[in-house]
Every structure is written in C-alpha cells, then in structure tokens.
Specification:
heterodimer; A: mainly alpha; 8 helices; globular; B: mainly alpha; 3 helices
C-alpha cells in the first residue's frame, strides 16, 4: 500500500507540474485529467468509495470535458512560455520552495496523535466507510441545510452561465 | 504504513504547484485549470483528515467543494467565452478595457 501511495504521488506531482509547464493547453488539460485520476485512486485508498466514483464522474468526466469543449471551440496558438521573463520564473520557483519549506515540517508534526488512528480504526472494525448509505444519512440529517443551499447555488450558476454566455445580449449592446 | 502526514504533504505540494501556475500562466483557461488543481489538492487533504479522524464530515465537505467547483466551472468558462468573443484572445493580458 505504501508503494502504491508513492507511485500515485509521483504520477500526480509530475502531472501537476505538467499542467503548469506544458505549452499547449490541450496537453495541460490531459495532464490535469491524469492528476484527477490519481486523486480518485487516493480517495479509494482512504475508503471514500462514493467520493472516488463521484470524482471520476463529475470532475474528470464532466468538468474536464467542459474545459476540453471550450478549448476546442477557441483554437488558438500555443502560449509562448518564454515570454515570461527569467526573473519571474526564478521568483516563482523560489517562492514555491519557500512555501513548501515552511509547510512540510508543520504538516509533518501536526495531528501527531492521529497519524496511526486510521489503521487502528480499521483493525478494530469501527472504521466509517464512505459508502453511499453512510454519506447519504449524514448529508440529509446533519447537513440538510447546506444541501439545500448548494442546490440554490447550482441554479444561480446555471442562470449566470446562460446570461453571460448568451449571444443575444451581446447583439443588443452592439445595436445600441 | 501510510500516515496522515503523507497525504497532507502531497496535498501541500499539489496546492503549491497549482498556486504558482495561477500566477505564472497567462492563458485564462490554463489559469482555470490550475485553480481546479488547487481544489483537488484540498479535497485530498479533507478526505485524508476524515479517514484519520474516524468520521465522515470531511467527505461531506469534499462533496460540497465538488458542487462549488462544478458551478464555478460553468460560470468561469462562460465568462472566458464571452471575453474571447469581444477581444478575440484568451490571454489575460488582452482584457484591458472595461467597455468596448
């Protein structure tokens, strides 16, 4: 399991670097899909079965397909990465290294009491598996208000996307 | 034995790469994809904490993060399309005028 985690972590890190450094945006999108598949594997390793499937269906299957649609609709030239000057790249890598230099020791020591707890719960048989029934029970009892608010949010996003993307409004302002 | 720190450090690394990508890249759609990368890193972190805490509230939070990400994808891509129609370019440097 530890070997699987390291392999998935390496693939995810390389795919994430690929999203940032690849010149063609289509290659970036495919690299991001690879990273999301890695995230789904991690979810499955963490006994979050429902979330693993939803990640593949919604994130990799709907959101990234939407991004690929938009990329195909606007066919443009590849971005000139050399147009970003060298001091900016150096500053980027330096600030990234600085951030990780401070974050990693903190994350290594934080939640120190929890580091073993997952496998303890699994051995004791009391691990809450992320199945549909368990998540549904929690979602509709404790988080039902958040659930309703999320549905209003989706409807607002739908209306907003149609209003912003619609062509007739564009033409109306053109006539004026 | 995989510990919690493995997942948290991986999440931090992916988040940092995504954050730097937002700052460096000038193509608006690639900037959007780096934002999605950051959201995925946070999802990994939340799920790992849910596993190691022993309850499912972290996974509910991931569920809602995915809902918000889907809504944001729809609206953000509609904005990028509208921007492309008026300026014929998806570079973030091209959107320099507030009205045509």
């Amino acid at each position: 399991m530890l070997i699987l985690f390291y392999i998935v972590a390496l693939i995810m890190t390389l795919a994430a670097i690929g999203v940032v450094l690849l010149r063609n945006p289509l290659h970036s999108a495919l690299s991001l899909i690879l990273c999301m598949i890695g995230v789904a594997i991690l979810f499955a390793m963490l006994q979050a079965h429902f979330l693993a499937v939803v990640q593949l269906i919604v994130y990799a299957g709907a959101i990234m397909v939407l991004v690929l649609f938009v990329l195909m609709l606007l066919n443009f030239k590849q971005e000139n990465l050399k147009a970003v000057s060298l001091p900016v790249w150096m500053l980027t890598f330096f600030s990234g290294g600085l951030l990780l230099y401070f974050l990693i020791p903190i994350l290594n020591k934080s939640f120190a009491g929890l580091a073993q707890k997952g496998s303890d719960l699994e051995a004791a048989g009391t691990l809450k598996e992320g199945t549909v029934e368990a998540l549904g029970e929690l979602l509709f009892t404790k988080y039902v208000f958040t659930f309703e608010v999320a549905s209003i949010l989706i409807m607002a996003a739908l209306v907003g996307a149609v209003m912003v993307g619609s062509r007739s409004i564009h033409r109306r302002t053109e006539i004026e | 034995m995989i510990g919690l720190q493995h997942y948290l450090i991986l999440s931090a690394v992916i988040f940092t790469i995504g954050a730097l990508g937002v700052l460096v890249r000038r193509n608006a759609i690639v900037v959007f994809m780096c934002i999605e990368l950051m959201l995925n890193a946070v999802n990994v972190s939340l799920t790992a904490l849910a596993y190691y805490r022993g309850h499912l509230d972290g996974q509910i939070a991931v569920f809602f993060v995915m809902v918000v990400a889907a809504a944001e994808a729809a609206v953000g891509l509609a904005i990028i399309l509208a921007l492309f129609r008026s300026t014929e370019s998806v570079e973030t440097d091209a959107a320099t005028e507030l009205r045509r």
